[in-house]
Amino acid sequence: MSAPYILVLYYSRHGATADMARQIARGVEMAGLEARLRTVPAISSECEAVAPQIPAEGALYASLDDLKNCSGLALGSPTRFGNMAAPLKYFLDGTSSLWLSGALVGKPAGVFTSTASLHGGQETTLLSMMLPLLHHGMLITGLPYSESALLETHGGGTPYGPSHLAGADSKRALDEHEIALCRALGQRLAHTALKLETIRG
């Protein structure tokens, strides 16, 4: 059996969501667990896009085993009209075997997103990602207001999970509050997973 890890699974088109994923992974590692970064390939409206087995850059593509064997999950997507991006939804739609076996029941999960505009659907996108995780029986961990950055942020950040305002050109970097909230989610997932592992003995 492999060492426990938190799967940080995301789709990123312009890099902002990937930057968030890396900060969440840093938070996981700060809490003493391994973070496994994984992404999903783009898809086409005409047919499934043909992607190489290994991406040219960035994280490896996720497998169902990555999800099945994780101790916790951070799920991230850019906002698409107030919803998660199609490539991530496509991957989740293929997880029926994990639902049937109950592989994810009782594992902690959190969500994160990036948008071009401040009121571009950050919270609805986070909620859209929670729905399949609830169907899988996962335990949703948001961000409590004890995280001071949640009260101070002028960019992104919600009690539902970290968010980021990337700007119309998708070039606005993560600010200090957004970074703090990403790391806080990573730490929260890791701490929760460790506590649950102890309880299960």
Structural class: alpha/beta
What is the global morphology?
globular
CATH topology: Rossmann fold
Domain count: 1
Question: For the record, what CATH class applies?
Answer: Alpha Beta
| Strand percent estimate | 15-25%
What number is the mean pLDDT? 93
- The assigned CATH architecture is 3-Layer(aba) Sandwich
* Tally of DSSP helical segments: 7
Fill in the keyword field for this structure.
single chain, 201 residues, alpha/beta, Rossmann fold, 8 strands, 38% helix
Tell me what the structure shows:
With 201 residues, the protein is of the alpha/beta class. The chain has a single domain (5-200), classed as 3-Layer(aba) Sandwich (Rossmann fold), CATH 3.40.50.360. Helices cover 38% and strands 19% of the residues. Strands 1, 2, 3, 4, 5, 6, 7 and 8 form an eight-stranded mixed sheet that branches. Strand 1 (5-10), helix 1 (16-30) and strand 2 form a beta-alpha-beta unit. It is globular. The two termini are 15 Å apart.
Would you kindly provide a brief summary of this structure?
The chain has 201 residues and is an alpha/beta fold. It has helices at residues 16-30, 64-68, 86-93, 96-101, 122-135, 149-152, 176-200; strands at residues 5-10, 34-39, 60-61, 72-80, 83-84, 108-115, 139-140, 163-165. The chain has a single domain (5-200), classed as Flavodoxin domain (Rossmann fold), CATH 3.40.50.360.
